[in-house]
Batch of 3 targets.
Target 1
Amino acid sequence: MLPDHGEHALALALFALTSVIMTWPLVAHLNTAVPGPPGDNLEYVWKMWWFKRALLDFGQSPMFNPDVFYPVGYPLALSETTVVHTVLGIPLTALWGEIAAYNLVSLGSFVLAGLGTYLFLRFVGCGFASAICGGLIYAFCPYRMSHLSAGHLPLLGTGWMPLLLLGIEKVVRAPSWRRGVSVGLCYGMLSLSSWYYAVIGGLLALAYVLVRCRPWKSRLLRWSLIRAMLLAGVVALLVIAPMALPVAQQYARGEASYDYSLAYVDRWSSSPLDYLWPNAMHPVWGSALTNAYYQNINENLLYLGAVALALAAIGLARRWRQEPTRAVLVIGVAALALSFGTSLHIGGAPVYLRVPPAVEYQFSRLMYVLTGRLALNKVDYGSMRRAGEIMLPMPGLLAYLFLPLANAMRVWTRFGVVVVLAVSAFAGLGVDALLDRRTRVERAALSAMIAILLLVDFWVAPAPFGHTRVVAQPVDRWLSQQPKAAIVSYPYEKTWYGWMLYPQRVSGQSIAYGYGTFTPSAFREHAEVLADWPSQQALDRLQALGIRYVLAGAASYGDDWPRVSIAMRDLGLEVVSSFEDEPIYYGDRLLAQVRPSEDVPSTELVSGDKSMYLTDTIYVYSVP
């Protein structure tokens, strides 16, 4: 047998090779394109560039950029900075540029997810092949593949979750300060991948510790464990604090206010069927499945896999008495319940029961008291109320109302990643049971067959959402040759997409718009005025802000363009130049089949009435 370090090196190589294959053609366009339609992917490509530029070129904090949301500037704490990727990716950005850095950290996240699961399963007793199979499930599940294609770089940081469980399991078995430090580092890295994972990972870790530590074996173990976990908390705090403090400051100033309606939050709930509905990104049967059942393809592709579920059932049946198995089962079931969000959903829609008016009235009274009077995070139930019908509340509603900071959680489907992790662990145990007492040849053949079946079930290549070429558009190249100035782009709603942030890196000009989870409050007042275009009031504001150029997309205005162009001429604006956008999006085989939805903005850019945003005729006007 190979020694442990030899097995781990082989596992690393296997996951690296499989990642290249399963994400194809990502590596073929390493420095030219990013997976998915133009959207959040280009936001994070811009951040990869900005973090490197601010820290290495300017020697300043990257947490503020004066050229976005001009003239207010952009405090980056208002959105996900995913510093695990942006900061640790700086060497890659410096060597090969921000496009390659984005793709490489995305690719590396699959290796880390698979390897982390493998290491956890090896530690709890699985064989090499069984641990590899568990890692394949977690690394290449539809949850991760869909977020790769949606450009959600922060959500690819799931590899720290199995490493967090591994660290906790080691501490529980033999507490030490070194193991406590490792737990704190893993949780810190998970949190700095995405603030969502700070909440999800914190609840996961707490539940795992509580389950694993009952009954207490001895007073010595108890106090040594408490000391190790307290040290883990201190380390995690030290790792997270530099990024959490700017967020807390923005929140204290009212800049990051969470005023979601209950109906809006409820939209981001998973359905039980989401976990069983076969892989909608599959190149063979995905098209038919997409048309047969509606899912938010960015958030609800939670399929656990037929092969994986069968293996997990075997693993649970054989190993349910083991303490780590029970702990993983508890966190998996809890995460499943929380992923259902605030009310029961089927096919993207909340389920309501028809009841007598008196019953609906009493139910609504109770809900108003619960959500508006008793809740820590108060919210108005009225947005969910329907005459003669009642919703079916899920456990996530109580979490949303009563857990501190839970009202910052918008997308509850993301708890589904913990469900996938639990199934991966159980499936690894299942493979281990199937391989038990077989010859070496039989084990090799059976494990290879299982691995192939798992990968076929989760297969999505070539990229289901296509690719976006990251290139400078002609208007951006022209702007880069002009003196430093401030610009604005119309129609204004066109700027409310992540892909509009990257051209600022190319042009070098200040932009009177931006993109993030929240926008600066001082800028929102400007935005309300600027959005009313073309008007004298908006022009007065442009002049007051010192805006030099207005970029207007003729195709984006559609039939309204003649009126808009005449109005701009009447306001005294003159055309300086015009440019035709070059196509940047190609290779899609899924988005065009999904009906455009406000829940999935990218579908509007691909097949909806905003598709002209991507290939426009841009007229550049000078502001008088």
Target 2
Amino acid sequence: MTNMPDTDDPIIPTTVDKGMAISSVGDMNRMLAKKITSMHMLYACGSGGSVNAEIAFVGEAPGEREVQVKAPLIGNSGKLLWECLRAEGITRGECYSTNLVKRPLEILHKSMKKPRAPIAKGELENWKHILLDELRRLPNVKYIVALGASVLYALTGNTHIDRWRGSVIPIQLGSPDSALKLRTVQVLCTYNPAHTFSAPLTEITLRMDLSKLHKLRNGTFSTPPITHLINPSYLDALDYIRMLQMDRKPVCYDIETINGETACIGLTNKTNEGMCIPFRSSAEHFYTRPQEINLRLALNALLMDKGMRFVAQNHTFDSTWLGFKDRIMVHGCWLDTMLAHHLLYPQLPHNLGYLVSQYTDYPFHKDDASDWRDMNDIDMLWRYNVKDVACTLLIAEKILDELREAKLDRFYFSHVAQLQPKLVRMTIGGVRADTRLKQQFTDEFGAAVTLARGVVESTARIAAGDDTLSINPNSPKQLGTLFFHTLKLVGRGTSTDAENRSRIRDNPRTNQDARDLLDALDDYAKKAKFFSTYANSRLDYDGRFRCEYKQTGVQSAPGRLSSSGTMWGNGLNLQNIPPRGRPMFIADEGYVFSYFDMAQIEARYVAWLANIVSWKHQFELARTSGGTYDAHRALASELFGIPYDDVPVEDFIEGHYTKRYIAKRCRHGLNYRMEAARLATTAGLPLLEASKAYALYHKLLPELRVWWNATIQAATRDRVLYSPLGRRWVLLERLQEDTLDSIIAFKPQSTAGDHVARVIYQCENDPRWPVDARFVLNIHDADIAMHRPEDGEVVRGLMKLYAEQSVFINDEPVICPADFALSIPDEQGVHRWSTLKKLKGVEALKPL
């Protein structure tokens, strides 16, 4: 074996051998072998195909199979590549193929007994020079396909293949042969096909990228110039805003921020032009104060004009920021490209960089948003802003066609677009905080966390028999050493997370001292999370909690909302507030909270989807009995073979979970292919008890597996599923075991999410809804509204009307009942989230 240089310093390639004529792949490989060995590097695999080809494919390095037969791109990843290209009418024989590195990446160095570390920078530079020389010798090459991050860097100097994939970048390619002049070739960047085996969803992206070769070859690939109207005068900016309002065409808008302030707004109603109206750079204002006031008033008039159709990418961000920071309100968004793309392809990325590569021929440009600082060129940011709005408008036109073709346009405009401005309003309005109580919680739980940490350290010393032991409960590395080396505990693998701690606790080899340590760690984790996430969260200047609700937030269940802190860095996820944190959330003075929660909504949908006749009967009996019949007790009765009346009403009695609780936890988890070990962890049950419940559950309910199999077969056959409300799920990747859970859960979870979310806009769009009432929180299967006390019957009546509307599943109407609650004042007369009390007899208003 030829020794490779063990250095980060590149070897300057020798002068190109001009005397070696290249008329075949054999000639090329002989030249490569001579050159590489002269540089004391390993040559293990050469090139293949035709040296007269127009298209060259460059992989990163040969695999085992390629080394065996001395030919590139013929292993499993190569097989996938050529399969993708056949769809574009491109065959292996008409192309040239090679690798950047001509040796396998994992080889044994003479002094090493394990695979070599990632390739050194110096060696990579050598391979880069060799590759460029190799490509220069191809007389007819016009297009080079860079397969992977290292090839992207070698050919273009760019990094981050996730950003640049799908881009076509021109490079200058010279030739040592005087007959071949310096020329420009196009480099199409995409993933290494091998990457798709570990990340199956990237295969569809790889196919989309490769489809651009067809456009390049037939001359339809186009990146038309965009006119950047930047640094406009006050009058030019004002005229442009008025022109957009007078034209009545769809207008795309986008903002950029600097240091927590709105830096500029981009506007356009054309795909080849846009204006960036700057407000400030990092140091100064662009217009005079009166001019900026007038521009803001003109923008507010434009954006609040309900006759205008606005286009945006992630409108939630821009409209929430403008509304909260600048008091510039946007009436709504006609087409949000991010949300529309999520509806079409819920599993794919939805950022603008990805959409630009999917729907346009423009190369990646998103780095310009940050590069302007390094170059001290604010105009770069303004041009970036213009390109964003022009590209977004172009993308919107194409996505709208796709929505119509997929017959999803009605669902988008009647549901997705209707919900978005309501969620924006919820964020801008926020929820008032009891700041005194919040500070009290911060102090109390800070002390409790310190105390809990001390308990962890003392129990760890006892378990280890070492009075000098010091342990950081936040360090997985230290905990791993303590668990698996010092204490010799046994779990599944070496994780120290809550799930594996539960397994370790259930292991019969775990002694009581170790169990005490695990209990102390669980207690510390709960208190530390509450302290850092909730008690120590940051309020906005007006003393309110806020979050950003995300319509694209739950990939496994599109339709369900998620939430996080706001885009300006305050707030937190308001959907998972534990009961002890809810007293901090209070209604505005003179207002109260009304709440509804859908009763077992997902389980009800599963009953009808799987046609579980006994469940359908039990759920209907529970709905029509006025709350006197409990479907969870009925399930426990069947599951454990005991009379219904002998099943406890409670979930927890004298320190033990009841059979009702076990049945309820089975229903919530085992409907979606959860295994017994996972049930034990999520339900807090011993593994043996969870395993028995698992076996009983599936013996009682064979319909579940029949439904699973039918759903998987339909997804495999059609590669598409539709929820009862019309939302689409598309199978884009190869079907794998970990894909099956999301396939099964899609219909019940997405339907539940869409159903609860639509109640928000249906209520607020109803003319009977009080003008000063508003929804303030979504908590998965529940919503909370704030209103004046005298409006309670109307608010709750509308909630019940829309929450209990039918959903048709397998041609049967399914009505899920809603449980209601109303806040009552505490001793100080304050209405809190924590003071919600259940209400009976809520009457629904009649439909209009």
Target 3
Amino acid sequence: MALLLGVDTGGTYTDAVIVDDESDVVIAKAKALTSRPDLSQGIGEAIGAVLAQSGISSDRIEMVSLSTTLATNALVEGQGGRIALIFIGFDEAEFGRAGLAEAVGNDPVIRVAGGHSHSGGESEPLDMEALEAAIVALPADITGIAVAARFATRNPAHEVAARDAALRLRSIPVTCSHELSSALGGPKRALTAVLNARLIGLIDRLIRACEGHLVHLGIQARLMVVRGDGALVSAELAKVKPIETILSGPAASIAGASWLTGEIDGLVSDIGGTTTDICLLKDGKPSIDPNGARVGKFRTMVEAVAMRTWGLGGDSEVHVLEGLSGGLRLGPRRVMPISLLAQHHPDLVHSTLDSALSKDVSTPEMGSFVVPLWSTPPVGLDQREQAIADRLGDGPVPRAQAVKTRLEGPALIRLVSRGHVVLAGVTPSDAAHVLGMGDRWDAEAAEKALTLFARRRIGSGDRIAASSQEVAEMIIAQLRKQTADCLLEAAFADDSRAWSADPESLAAHELVAAGLDRHRGIIQTQVSLAVPVIGLGASAASFYPPVGERLGTKMIIPEHADVANAVGAVVGQVSMQVSGSVTSGGEGNYIVHLAEGPMRLTRRDEALALLQDHLEEQARALARDAGVEEIRITVAQDVREVQVENQSMFIEAEIRVTAQGRPRIAVG
């Protein structure tokens, strides 16, 4: 039998499974807490535990595959490394498009002259002198550089020159936009490159941590990584293009859901610690987003499953709504559950909560903690950020001790967004411990934290709830409500009807609410889902059954739903896609846009054949590098022509070549 090891690193847990590839059986599974900042500890614990449980020696593992939600979580929470954008040949207005300015934030932007035209000709020479001076002047704490040039997909010469200069002068990872997508749309390509540059350090650390433990345990098998469309790629490629791993975990969950249930149609809803990810499974396959993966507020050029991601999970921050009636809202930020923090720092948590409970008032800061995530203190902090970091030198502290003035509040949020610290507070996971739905961590600390939380006042002056039990029930009810809303929104978005309103508005419409309530008056309404929901995640069995009842559909919670992502990580195939274009340079002039630059030919068929041969060679090489021996090639051509005076006039052609196959199942 061929034994495959699947590993999934999420925001809270790292899961590991061993699957028999011949009999399609899960032999063993295990969980460990995802360790920050040293991811290797959690990965090592999960792999070690699953090997021990199975009784299988490490040298019998024949393939390892890794999926992760870390990239998705980082983008949803606005985290990642500090980057610089080299923006070549674009004007100021283009910087404000496609969410690029928001994605860059306060990070430095180098604007220089250069770029190319639609046909691949140079619009303006690249100002290398200005570029090199600006690269040298970048701050010391930059962890990655993104490069985007006008019409780089038609001619990447200026991006390549800028990349080479950046590597020579700074020796940090550089991402070129043309390497991530062959599509037009400069600002959106630049956005994708910016996000890729932010994620490089995070994914590199993850893969190196996994590789290190495989070597330590004597596992010599090839390491694969799940891409956002569910396909497998080599670990080496994932390090260079980490943006392709956004929605990696969710994509693996779709494969895992189908494999575990045998269902071919349904909505797959995967709840983790940070996010809820929902995708339509149709005819046994996940739908692919034609507009590029959307994560949080950003629409990228990464091809991925049509997954909708919300900042809603077991570790979501609990907010009290303003107004007289109060109410709760969860997410989108993840915080460390109080019950988990107490597991590692019991004296700090219990003494702080006991002190707060002895007082008559309760404020948002009470029961909130700040936890450092660094192994060595971060560099490049401003004065207020450094002051907070100094107070965290000996480990976690109550929030009121970490932030001394109102002006330090934004500094703390910046430290959170950069992944240097995490806040700890009340979460649905704590509520589950109070209600007896979970017992993994410190239930007594959860009880104290929710008792304190229940004392907070709403706009009317009343307390939120009378007891920890009551507020815990409110939190779980809110999680279920928001989950149902997410499922409705996804269903409206994927429904075949052309609705006049957007999915979010439809899901929140009062007639939909009346239909879910089965209103019976002069007006009779009913709304339900026409497909089952497949619930995945460690907490799905506890949280999801009432959601199915609310939506009037079957809720399927499969065996091994808690490790579905790790299962999905090892049941996929390698699928390497490359694309390119041929454009018209006038009658009898066909421009083939190749990676090394444009080439002009006089015959249409020769131009198309040259491009296809070039792409097939590139796709085969990528598949071979990923360990595929039996490669299947498929080619799709999109030739755009117009009729002028009863004659066809060539405008443009795009060719996409896909190389597919199972990675080699063999040691070494």
